[in-house]
Design brief:
Blueprint (H helix, E strand, L loop, with lengths): L2 E6 L13 H18 L4 H6 L3 E11 L8 E12 L2 E9 L5 E12 L6 E2 L32 E8 L13 H10 L3 H7 L1 E8 L8 E8 L4 E7 L5 E9 L5
Antiparallel strand pairs: 1-3, 2-5, 2-8, 3-4, 4-5, 5-6, 7-9, 8-11, 9-10, 10-11
Helix pairs in contact: 1-3
Length: about 250
């Protein structure tokens, strides 16, 4: 069963080019997935009361055309399959006229919010209806390549603050997309925009932690990013492809 929600791009969700930020697009999709679960009588609040939460582990986003501020959009989502412990969910963002703006493929796991133990899908007490793909080949699951050894590297550190956290008291998945964009060369990002972002969430980051960010410059369009905790454990990784130069 697919689910669609009409929304409008907020001014404050756009960047200096008046285009929707990739992190805001993720927020719209995350909110729509919650609305979908609520419509199925399994809202995130209800799941939390039952000691269950869905945690995003991986997402690949393809931007066909980023919408502008105040532009009406329709966010669609569909749970398509269960692979091992992962729930696969697709997202689309379209114009009211049917133009495909953004395609996204995501993987989630069910977990105990207190112990953080991964739960098997068989322990999920509800029937999550699965349907066919809604992506029309717009995006495919993308593996995040290992960084090349001889590339230029940019290094940064990020202190995890209150504004980065969500109700699980760890950095919200959408905020990591801001971390990614903040680590890219500003001029290239503004001039080109994001074509594709693949991000893999490995270990949660909490308040007060300092993340060490390493960005490998593969070309003026392509970047690999890895983030680690103070103890060296991986936090998240990302692969970014920017668009062609705008004219």
């Amino acid at each position: 069963m697919s689910f669609r929600a009409e929304k409008k791009v907020n001014y404050y969700d756009c960047d200096g080019s008046n285009l929707l930020k990739i992190s805001a697009a993720m927020r719209y999709m995350q909110q729509t997935s919650s609305e979908h679960l609520e419509a199925l009588d399994m809202s995130p609040a209800k799941l939390y009361e039952g000691n269950m939460v869905f945690l995003l582990t991986k997402m690949t986003i393809k931007a066909h055309r980023m919408p502008e501020s105040t532009e009406p959009i329709i966010v669609g989502t569909q749970a398509v399959e269960i692979k091992g412990v992962r729930f696969v969910r697709e997202f689309t963002i379209d114009s009211p006229g049917g133009e495909r703006l953004i395609s996204a493929l995501s993987q989630w796991v069910l977990a105990d919010p207190k112990s953080h133990k991964i739960l098997r899908p068989s322990s999920f007490p509800y029937e999550l209806p699965l349907g066919g793909s809604i992506l029309s080949g717009g995006v495919a699951d993308q593996q995040i390549p290992k960084e090349a050894g001889d590339t230029k590297r940019l290094r940064d550190q990020i202190l995890v603050r209150y504004s980065h956290l969500d109700l699980n008291r760890h950095v919200n998945n959408c905020v990591y997309a801001d971390f990614v964009c903040d680590s890219l060369p500003y001029e290239q990002l503004i001039a080109r925009g994001i074509d594709t972002l693949a991000i893999h969430f490995q270990n949660e980051a909490k308040w007060g932690e300092v993340l060490s960010i390493t960005t490998s410059v593969l070309s003026d369009r392509e970047y690999h990013l890895s983030a680690r905790h103070g103890d060296g454990a991986a936090c998240f990784g990302a692969h970014i492809l920017l668009g062609e130069l705008k004219h």
